[in-house]
Protein 1
Amino acid sequence: MGTTMQKDKVFHFNFTLLVLGQASSLFGNYILKFALAMYVLEVTGSATIYASILAVATVPMILLSPLGGIFADRMNRKNIMVALDILSGISVLCAAFLLSDNHGIAVIGVLLVVLSILGAFESPTVQACVPQMQTGQNLIKCNAVVNQVSAISALITPILGSILYVALKARHGSKHRMFLARRFI
């Protein structure tokens, strides 16, 4: 009876947790990616390097998303989402420890690729969870909510990332570039 009642409500507890988790994950990752890309542009002064790193970091998402969908259909989705968030956190921490003046751009490039790989598995997993939680008209509404969270994240995070980047830069000065990168990561 509890499962039937949950599927009747659009924003029941589990779906709300899914949406909030997805929103926090997307906002955090998108803000970090944007701020790091801005850092690369500022440090190198090269739009070519900036665009190349962003392009290379996008390729895994394009190539691996279908594989992410297969994993989401065949494995425990909750475990996949938890593992991906843990791996994202570990990746960011490792990058923070590996940053240096000599290898900062390379570390950032690798981190952006790793986050893209993980993202290729996260998005299909979240989308595959919705039909387990909802039925009928609620399924359509909830799919719309999940897609709207993704779209809003993509729209708002460049603004938030730039505000964060400028605020940290103003607070710590341009002399402390590696400090700024470590603060983002």
Note: Residues 16-184 form a domain with the Growth Hormone; Chain: A; fold (CATH 1.20.1250.20).
Protein 2
Amino acid sequence: MTTEPETGPAPSRPDSALPLATAPLATATSASTHAPGLAVIVGSTREGRAGPAFAEWFRDQAWNHGRFRIDLIDLADAKIPSVYPAHPDSPVREYIRRLADADAFVIVTPEYNHGYPGTLKQAIDLARSEWHAKPVGFVSYGGVAGGLRAVEQLRPVFAELHAVTVRDGVSFRNYWETFDVATRMPRADDGCNAAAIKMLDQLLWWSVALRDARSQRPYVA
């Protein structure tokens, strides 16, 4: 079997031309302050990555959905350490605080050599209780498999962290043909917008149900 690269033909402009808002500007809402918080996490930190474009596209989908407070977390900006710290520094504490504030998560991930990025695993492992009893969805991209092999490896990781992964997700196969990184838009709506709405509906159901449950009785891990 072939390995799924993240990068296809070079985009029309580099990632440096695709700015991502950083905290607190990354937090946006088209819903009330009582709406569940949704953290959209950019899983790749490689130079030339396409992840920020997919994350911003999905953030817009969530904004139009209108039922979440949205926080866009780019791991390249979060200063995730390469060595697991015995005592978290200020950037790590801030990153963990943002996870704690979320009621649901969407992981935006490519597929590298049939797996997900190492930095993403480090970012997941830096927190523990912040993941507990919360739903997780996925937006993946890659070659012929659309990043789905990375997603299937992430599901048991989140199960170990007592998180609930939703069944449905969004996947972009041969993304350099199906997604315009420069404009942050699919080249054609082949069901990706409907898939995003379906996943957001599932995340909303789980996030509200689990938030209410956690408020009534602390989760026991």
Note: The chain has one domain: 15-214.
Protein 3
Amino acid sequence: MAFCGTSREHLAAAPAECAASDRVVGRLTDPTAVIDFFDDVHRQIDRIDILVNNACLSPKRRSPESWGGQIELDEWRWVIDINLTSAWLCSRAVVPVMMAGGWGRIVNIGSIAGRTTPRIAGPHYAAAKAGLAGLTRALAVDLAPYGITVNCLAPGWISSNMTAPADSETAREAAATIPVRRVGVPGDVAASVMFLVSNEASYVTAATIDVNGGVFAA
């Protein structure tokens, strides 16, 4: 396993099985840095089978009355680059290696915000995550003949450093609106990723799978 991100704190929390040398602080929006990272990984382990694109940035609406045109252009570009362009850059870097091996799994971590009207996230985040689902479908069709599947997950409320703690009043209020009556935990998303990268999921590609307790259908 190898991890690349902008937060040393988050990288330090990576599983112990991942050597310290495989926890790289880098800019996933920098094409050169992305290529260098994956070239180094390929040299070390001689293959790349799985890519999980999990980079995320989610500025919230400034107020319930705000609208998308009030977002500064630099912020718009920043959110699109982190949430969408980075996934394309990373996929572009690893696909030739996967093609050579005749097998690969790419999982993009999207959001329910890309499938419905976002109530809290800004419209730039919703646009990026909707674009990620579209990128997933396009890559899936292109890469299917090479034994590579590409899928997207659309999590809802997941307890993390981007949301309120699961035991907070905010989370309890949110849980009351979710059909399964609880907020999600990282393990819910991780279990879905583990299925999609397995051999058992070889017939699943181009899919966007909801991991949101039924909110999308409610």
Note: The mean pLDDT is 87.
Protein 4
Amino acid sequence: MWSARRCDVGTAYTGAVDYVVELQHDVDIAGLDYAALERLAAHALAIENVVRPSELSVVLTSDAAVRDLNRTYRAVDAATDVLSFSQTEGEEFAVPGGETPHLGDVIISIETAQRQADEHSLALQDEVGHLLVHGVLHLLGYDHEDAADEVLMRAHEDAILGTHAHHH
């Protein structure tokens, strides 16, 4: 069963919405602070100076669902921790007047996140937060295909996550 939340993160002074983060999950994750994840996603967008307003979708799901997506869209028949599907790559997509532009979707496998958290003695919240930021950075065009790109991406992760940053 899918559950969805919508978090409009705005400016306290003007009341204007800066970022809309829609978080969906089809697995129940005890103790995971969804509101904190939504705020973290909005924080990442703000730190990266993403145009305001913008919308982002986050999906927390199973290894099987991520594997299906990975096989369908990347021709890789395996689960992974996070996938990002940008709506800003390729041909420009027209956004109707007054509509908030959608940046894309970040898909996180909770099962893989839990395994990685256990392997590195991390709280699941911290691992999912790291994967969320990692996925957002991919949406924004960052990558880690070579050493220089990896250093740059990690620096951005560190800037966003601060003391919660970790790499494995």
Note: The chain has a mean pLDDT of 85.
